[in-house]
């Protein structure tokens, strides 16, 4: 009878199957995975937007439109920012922080 009240239920971790986690830790892992997926989707959306801008710029130029050096410079800056991964460092640090919180079982900071 004491066993039913004294022990919390555990299951295998999603991130580390060899580790046993309780409900709170499992929810923290879910939050981490959800945040990671959302950041990857944002990255894909940014890449698609850059592709659309490049195609639109070339289509405009090919259709006899005027060459816009300022637009090309702006587009180049955007492509460079993605290429150098300025925001990837931020996402990586955020994901690492979340992972540390998952490992420490700090659910309240993740929600």
Number of helices: 5
Strand count, sense and barrel status of the largest sheet are: 2 strands, antiparallel
Give the uncertain stretches in residue-range form.
none
Strand content: under 5%
Order of helices and strands: HEEHHHH
Query: C-alpha Rg, in Å?
Result: 23 Å
Average of pLDDT: 76
Helix content: over 70%
Strand neighbour order, sheet with most strands: 1-2
In total, the number of strands is: 2
Q: Can you walk me through this structure?
A:
With 111 residues, the chain is mostly helical. Helices cover 76% and strands 4% of the residues. The protein contains 5 helices and 2 strands. Strands 1-2 form a two-stranded antiparallel sheet. Strand 1 (11-12) and strand 2 (20-21) form a beta hairpin. Helix 2 (23-62) packs antiparallel against helix 3 (69-84) and helix 2 (23-62) packs antiparallel against helix 4 (86-104). The longest helix is centred in the middle third of the chain and has 40 residues, at 23-62. The radius of gyration is 23 Å and the shape is rod-shaped. It starts with a helix and ends with a helix. The model has no long low-confidence stretch (mean pLDDT 76).
């Amino acid at each position: 009878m004491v066993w039913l009240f004294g022990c919390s239920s555990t299951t295998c971790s999603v991130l580390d199957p060899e580790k046993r986690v309780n409900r709170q830790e499992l929810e923290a892992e879910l939050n981490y995975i959800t945040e990671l997926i959302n950041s990857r989707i944002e990255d894909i959306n940014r890449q698609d937007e850059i592709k659309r801008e490049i195609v639109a710029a070339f289509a405009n130029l090919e259709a006899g439109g005027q060459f816009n050096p300022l637009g090309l410079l702006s587009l180049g800056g955007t492509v460079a920012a993605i290429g150098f991964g300025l925001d990837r460092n931020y996402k990586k640090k955020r994901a690492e922080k979340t992972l540390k919180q998952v490992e420490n079982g700090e659910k309240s900071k993740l929600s």
